[in-house]
Amino acid sequence: MNLKSVIESLLFISDHPLSINDFSEFSDCKKNEVEKILEELCENYQDRDGGIEIIKHQKKYQMISSPNNSEVIQKFLKDETTGELTRPQLETLTTIAYRGPITKPELEQIRGVNCSLVLRNLMMRGLIENTDQDFLITLDFLKFLGIRDVKELPDYKKLSSNKIIGEILSEPTINN
Amino acid sequence: MNLKSVIESLLFISDHPLSINDFSEFSDCKKNEVEKILEELCENYQDRDGGIEIIKHQKKYQMISSPNNSEVIQKFLKDETTGELTRPQLETLTTIAYRGPITKPELEQIRGVNCSLVLRNLMMRGLIENTDQDFLITLDFLKFLGIRDVKELPDYKKLSSNKIIGEILSEPTINN
Amino acid sequence: MYKIRTESFEGPLHLLLQLIEQEKLDINEVSLAQVADQYLAYIKQIEEKNPEEMADFLIIATKLILIKSKSLLPNLDLGLEEDEALLEEQLKMYREFVLASENIQNIIEQKNFTFSRNKYIVNDAVFSPPVRLTKERLSEIFYEIISSVKPILKLPEKAIKRAISIKEKIDFIQKLIKRRSVLIFNKVINDTKNKTEKVVSFLALLELMKNRLVSASQNKIFDNITLKKL
Q: C26-61 burial by CB neighbour count: b if 16+ within 10 A, else e?
């Protein structure tokens, strides 16, 4: 195992700052070794002066996009979470509205495609939320639609208990 | 603005594959410039051989953790990927990987069976996607295999450009 | 004859490949003709156990029968000849992909899974609804989703229907021959609507010949085939 490579992967993948303890635990290496490599990596990234940086704060390390590009990154993030919904996003949101609480596998069974990214995006926009495995539309979104309960959605009773949707959900995951 | 740095930041920050179009739009630079820099970055990362890599397929790019560290990262993310595929799934994926973009009738011509259900299941797992009539493997498929590009698959050149296969695929299908 | 459990193969080409490999044969016309009967025997099993897969198996049966028929009726012209040379190539190609899929299986088993970041999520969710979305639009979309799901449920049903129509054709031809003492086979062929039907007609003919219910004769090359009840 290449410790430097492992630490770099962990820095890259983590969505929160990690302590030397964390790195030591996951890489199964001694703290002083880990710290040495971390310092080395920090220096490397500083020298590279590229689009990725490593910041250190109270003995915790985190990888971030370079502040030089914050404008572009802000634009990118804003674009991801505003504006019109794509068709897959719209379909997923609708299905959650009419069939929620609903799990990711159930959604995928109905839509026939993987929904990971779409779900993440809808959560980021505050349109849906999850409890455990189940996804629901948020109160904010209900209010936005001008209703207090999903039951007030047009044709709710008929659509939420639609037979065809029921059938596709009860299909055994086909061994194909 | 340093285009290379911007592209690296975008690659780092995005939770989904980005196309040359996306990079061009957010950086406000021409597509051919962007593509050149992307290729340069891919090479740099390959040469570095560190904990971060860049994968690409059909002009889409994504930054990932190195396959060398999959065990540590899987543990860190509490990821439960096991890699199980049924035989039809494996055959279909293989065919799409080597011959994609490929249409459903072409695929059925190679496999000699109706592929509707297996395609649906693979789409639900996010290992393939379709655009118009064509099926393609996704970057998630590359992530699943731990390769940077389909071209790294064994015998890629031979199978992807096989003349006889081309001829058979250009035959009208018998499937009524 | 070797026994292959129906669960152990996936599709007609896989079955054919297994038959050829069991006999340790190379993939060529001679060996295809050699395993044709075994293949056709399995088709009957499939008809009983997996009727929804029947149609796929019949398509390959077509090609096998054409190869086989050369020895039985050298001058039969079903207007399908361009297919027969291709089966050999198709099977070779299929084997290439089977081998390649074994390579891919090996790669997957190394578990070199890689991961991308999914950082900017949930905790910093800011409510940002799509401006023009209304509840009426939501219901429209849900109706559309329902109608796009419908055909998926019907997939197996459709395949079975197709296989049943093939079975009916076989019965039809058998009845036709039983009723008359002489039948011009080419007429049966000409009445068919597509290749699959042609094959099925021919399958029925072979079946009848094998069971010694009819004899087939042909006066000269490209002439009509006359079937006689025995």
A: ebeeebbbbbbebbbebbeebbeebbbbbbbbbbbb
Cβ separation C101–B91 shorter than 8 A: yes
Residue C19's closest CA among C59, C64, C52? C64
Cβ(A38)–Cβ(A20) below 8 Å:
yes
Averages of pLDDT over runs of 10 residues in chain A (176 residues) are 95 95 95 96 94 94 94 90 92 96 94 93 93 94 95 94 88 56
**Option in B6, B16, B117 nearest A51 (CB):** B6
Q: How many helices (H) and strands (E) does chain B have?
A: 10, 6
ipTM of this predicted structure: 0.90
Task: For A37-48, write each residue's pLDDT tens digit.
Answer: 999 999 999 999
The alpha carbon of residue C212 is apart from the nearest alpha carbon of chain B, in Å, by 31
**Cβ-count burial of A32 within 10 angstroms (0-12 exposed, 13-18 middle, 19+ buried)?**
exposed
pTM of the model: 0.85
| Cβ distance of B121 and A176 shorter than 8 Å | yes
Closest to C158 (Cα-Cα) out of B114, A33, A36: B114
User: For residue range C71-116, what is the model confidence (pLDDT) as tens digits?
Assistant: 566 665 555 555 556 788 889 989 999 999 999 999 999 999 999 9
User: Is residue A67 reached through a cis peptide bond, with omega within 30 degrees of 0 on the bond before it?
Assistant: no
- A interface with C, Cβ–Cβ below 8 Å: 12-13, 15, 77, 81-85, 90-91, 93-95, 97-98, 110-112, 120, 123-127, 138, 140-141, 144-147, 152-155, 159, 162, 164-165, 167-168, 171
